Amino acid sequence: MVASGDGWDGISVGRESYQGLVYSMDVQGNHTYVADNIVTHNSQDLSKVMLDIARRQDAQVIALGDDQQAIYAWRGAINAMQELNGDMLPLTESWRFGSEIADMANFILEILGEDWLVTGKGSPGLVTDDPFDLRGEAVLCRSNAGVIRETLELLDENKSVGVVGGTREAVQLLYACWDLYCDKKPRHPEIGMFRNWQELVIFSESEEGGGFKPVVGMVERYRASIKSLCYRLKNETVPEQEAEFVVSTAHKAKGREWDSVRIGQDFSPLAEEEQPERISANGEIIPGVFKLNEEEANLQYVTVTRAKGHLNMAGLGRQLEADRSRLGKRKKAPVQKDEPENLIDILDAEEEW
User: Fold this and answer.
1) Where are the alpha helices (H) located in the chain, listed in sequence order?
2) Which of 184, 171, 284, 286 is nearest to 218 (CA)?
3) Cα 94 from chain centroid?
4) Domain locations in the chain?
5) CA distances from residue 193 to 176, 255, 294 in whole angstroms, order as listed
6) What phi-psi label fits residue 76: left (phi over 0), alpha (psi between -120 and 50 degrees) or beta?
7) What is the CATH class of 93-165+237-332?
8) Strand pairing of 285-286 and 278-279?
9) Which of 40, 97, 198, 309 has CB atoms 3.0–4.6 Å from 101's, for a disulfide?
10) Are the C-beta atoms of 37 and 2 separated by less than 8 Å?
């Protein structure tokens, strides 16, 4: 979005530009191409290309974003909020929810070591932590595998279900896992990395690969019936606006809100074990050492802040308590801002990535 003499004008930027695959502007130093002011939204998840374009303009750059909503580093995004030099002006009040949901969001922010916490200015709400309470207008999951499980369970309860973004990704995941199970090479960006079914099974038992555990269990349980499950996902789900329940991954839920949200069962612990508990030579127990998975913490923060009125943590609350106990108090490290990189170096690096 750019400022013009008559107000604000929008500039449409495609996903290719966001991911750094297209760079069509002939950028020259100290030249303003668009306006006197440039505003970037969701600046916590920009590509290096978009950041470089903003830096090279002779204009005021206003970066809007939230450090704790940076959830796309896995696909090459960077947090421009930590790269741009300027005055930081916090916006800490939310009218989406009240103090109850804000308290849960702040629980995660405190684990992250964040100084600026959220103040809930919306209507009073309710936070529960009951995995057996299946109420919730929206069910938010960590992975596509979690979406599959939650969708099928709701369909089994004769509920009308809509899946954010449709069921294509979920169906492709199930088919790919079935191919791997049958010793065929899956044409799938994630499942295609595994050489055989046993590799996927072992990976699904790890903390990092825990999101695949539900779909692995489905394939081993239903086997040849997987095709009928795919049929159900494609043909028994309904458009969101017609659904009693909406199921989504947390990534696709970003920017959305619902009156009532239930958290899926496939989120990973924030505390990752670096060194296991051990016994010293004199018989003393030396506690294990844990590190914080910051991007996972950001994703869980995004997830809990989608709720407006009722938030059911569905067991995640107890997991967060354990994470805080293992990680202890954390002080946020100061951000090191690098000098702007040469454009050619940026493009070369992204091509290698």
Assistant:
1) 15-18, 48-55, 99-111, 144-156, 168-181, 197-204, 213-222, 226-235, 250-253, 294-304, 316-327, 343-352
2) 171
3) 20
4) 2-85+337-352, 93-165+237-332, 167-235
5) 11, 31, 25
6) left
7) alpha beta
8) antiparallel
9) 97
10) yes
Structure tokens at 211: 């999101």
Asked if residue 147 has pLDDT above 80, the reply is yes
- Buried b vs exposed e over 141-171: b needs ≥16 C-beta within 10 Å? bbbbbbbbbbbbebbeeeeebbbbeebebbb
Strand partners, 8: 3
Mean pLDDT of the residues in the chain: 81
This prediction's pTM:
0.75
Check residue 333 and give its pLDDT. 52
Q: Which residues lie closer than 8 Å to 333 by C-beta, 6 or more apart?
A: none
Tokens in use for 303? Answer: 């997830």
Closest-CA residue to 122 (of 141, 145, 99, 104): 99
Predicted local distance difference test score (pLDDT) of residue 23: 43
Most confident among 43-47, 112-116, 235-239 (mean pLDDT): 235-239
